[in-house]
Design brief:
Order of helices and strands: EHEHEHEHEHHHHHHHHHHHHHH
Strand order of the largest sheet: 2-1-3-4-5
Largest sheet: 5 strands, parallel
Number of domains: 2
Number of helices: 18
CATH superfamily of the largest domain: Hypothetical protein af1432
Structural class: alpha/beta
Helix content: 40-55%
CATH topology of the largest domain: Hypothetical protein af1432
CATH class of the largest domain: Mainly Alpha
Radius of gyration: 24 Å
Strand content: 5-15%
Shape: elongated
């Protein structure tokens, strides 16, 4: 994953020199640069692209470097992007104002190539460790796998949920309580299908991993308030394979189930889903169950782009999709246990604490894994 650096300076010669200095950044095999002499043109580019570092001249005719940083920080996904201001003046007041408006670091002209490489290299390394999907998910997978080796007691369940919630909710509109609701609904469906205590406990912990691959989706797509265009939608769909690829080779059966769910929860029973176009019972059971739990909770929840549906409308929609989008048996269970699902919705509503005290697996509340 090669870093992209935005270079903004109204002097073309300065841009050329910066590019030459950055060619051999430590840890970056190939640096991609986007070069601009106009702050307004750079802002237009930033609305459609997400750099990993910005090097910005302070004195420019259209707007100052500080004003540019202030404007670009308002764009989705730009809060965590490092910004270096380049200036010929070593003024304390300027630096304080720049820091207040979102600058991360400073360079003073004449630029020392070694200093530029060191400062830019450190910021790029930090940025890449946060945004590279494989690094982020593999780090999480390592931590969760260590917990999974322990007995699945309440404290360990909370650790897993916190890890997943902290990683996912920092970039997506979904809350930690969404993960709890999906976990409990998935476990309820598995229990009533008679899939056994071990499977039910596993899916309770693995279900929240269904969208873990979204950490690899650019913020400009993931956080876009409007409808995605066809190209953006193709990128969004890759969250299924990103999550699968980083979890599939784990020695933990829990994480392998998480990989299976991440990969298959957008497949459709009629074969028209993605990413593999699996059909019917060729879709893993855990994926079929979580598909129902996730869709139901998503419809019942408020999102930036929609209002919450009523339970009546959700039931009608899910029943209509039975046998086409969803496994008919899973929908039958859902329809027979709407009251329990409503209780789950209330217990883990978005205006309650994300990590409630009562973390008992649902089988303890429903009397075991009996098929009804």
């Amino acid at each position: 994953m090669n870093p992209t650096i935005l270079l903004l300076d109204d002097n073309q010669e300065n841009l050329y020199l910066l590019k030459q200095m950055l060619r051999e950044l430590a840890g970056a095999k190939q640096v991609v640069t986007a070069e601009f002499t106009s702050p307004n043109e750079a802002l237009v580019w930033c609305r459609e692209n997400e750099p990993d570092l910005c090097l910005v001249d302070y004195q420019m005719p259209e707007m100052s470097g500080v004003e540019f940083i202030d404007a670009v920080r308002q764009l989705p996904g730009f809060n965590g992007i490092p910004m270096i201001i380049i200036t010929g003046a070593d003024e304390k007041e300027l630096r304080q104002r720049a820091l207040q408006r979102g600058a991360t670091d400073f360079l003073t002209r004449p630029i020392d190539p070694a200093e530029l490489k060191a400062r830019a290299g450190n910021l790029i390394a930090l940025r890449m460790s946060l945004v590279d999907p494989r690094i982020r998910v593999e780090r999480l997978a390592h931590d969760v796998e260590a917990v999974a080796r322990l007995a699945l007691e309440r404290e360990h369940e909370q650790i897993i949920f916190k890890m997943l919630a902290n990683l996912s909710s920092c970039r997506d509109e979904e809350t930690g309580n969404h993960m709890h609701r999906v976990a409990h609904i998935a476990q309820l469906i598995a229990s009533k299908l008679g899939l056994g205590e071990q499977f039910c406990d596993m899916i309770y912990l693995a279900a929240p991993m269904h969208d873990i691959g979204k950490v690899g989706i650019p913020d400009r797509i993931l956080l876009k308030p409007g409808k995605l265009n066809p190209q953006e939608w193709e990128v969004m769909k890759t969250h299924t394979t990103i999550g699968y690829d980083v979890l599939k080779d784990s020695t933990s059966s829990l994480l392998r189930m998480g990989a299976e769910i991440a990969h298959s929860h957008h497949e459709k029973f009629n074969g028209e889903g993605y990413p593999q176009g699996l059909k019917g019972e060729s879709i893993p059971m855990a994926g079929r169950i979580v598909a129902v739990a996730d869709e139901m909770d998503a419809l019942l929840s408020v999102r930036p782009y929609k209002k919450a549906w009523s339970m009546k409308d959700v039931v009608e929609q899910m029943r209509h999709a039975q046998g086409r989008h969803f496994d008919p048996d899973c929908i039958d269970v859902m329809l027979r246990h709407i009251d329990t699902i409503q209780d789950i919705q209330k217990q883990f509503a978005d205006d309650t604490a994300v990590y409630p005290t009562d973390m008992r697996p649902l089988r303890l509340l429903t009397g075991g894994a009996s098929k009804k």
